[in-house]
Amino acid sequence: MNSVAGLVLHRARRWSCVLALVPASLLLSDCGKKHHVTHSLPPAPPLRSGETGLASWYGHPYHGRAAANGEIYDMEKLTAAHRTLPFGTWVRVTNLTNDKSVDVRIIDRGPFVGGRIIDLSHAAAEVIDMVGSGIARVRLDIVSAPMVAAAENWYAVQAGAFREKERADNLRASMEREYGSAQLVFRGGDVALWRVLVGREPTEDAAEMLAQKVRQEAGAAFVVRLDK
Prior knowledge:
Elements: H1 3-20, H2 24-28, E1 51-58, E2 79-81, E3 90-95, E4 101-108, E5 116-121, H3 122-127, E6 135-144, E7 155-162, H4 165-179, E8 182-187, E9 193-201, H5 204-218, E10 222-225
Parallel strand pairs: 1-5, 2-4
Antiparallel strand pairs: 1-6, 2-5, 3-4, 3-6, 7-9, 7-10, 8-9
C-alpha cells in the first residue's frame, strides 16, 4: 500500500469512529432537503359564543363620527359595538324575547354600562324589534371572525371615562400607582371622552381578575380589548 492510500484509509477510519459517537437522529436530519425550524406563537384562544346579556342601541350624536376602528359610524348599517371582540367579527344577535335575529359587524367599542354586552346600530335594533324598548336580552353567536395573532390579543380594564382630561388623568395616576400600568385613550367626536385603561393582560380571564380588584376602588370597571 502506498503512502497516499494509507493516509486515505487512516482518515476514513478516524471519521468512522467520530460518526459512531453521533446520534442517529442528528445524522438523519441532514438527509434530503434541509428544513428551517420556525418558532410560531401559540394560536389565539377561540372566541366565546353564546354570550348572553342586555343589548342596547345607539344613534345620534354618534351617527356620522368615527367609530373605534376608524370608519365612519352609520346608524343605518348593520354594525355594533362590543368591548372585546376583534374588529371585523360578525355576530348573530338573537332577541331572546321574540327569537328575532340579525347579523352585525363589530366596528366600535362599548357599551360601558353594567349588564350590557353589545350596542347595536339603529338598523340592527329595528330588525330584532327593540328600538322602542331601548334594551333587550340577547344571545351572541360568532358567525365569522378575522385571524388575530396571539401577540395582538391583549386586554385591559376600563376604570372610567371622563369628558374632562384632568379628572381622567387623576384616576390614571392613581391606577398606575396601584397596578403599575394605566393609560389614557382619547375618543373624539361630539361627545369626546378620555378613557382610563388599566393593565395589560394576555387573556380575558386574567383581565377579569384585575377588573374585580379595580371595581373595589373605582366602582364600575369593564374588560376591554387593547386595540392598536
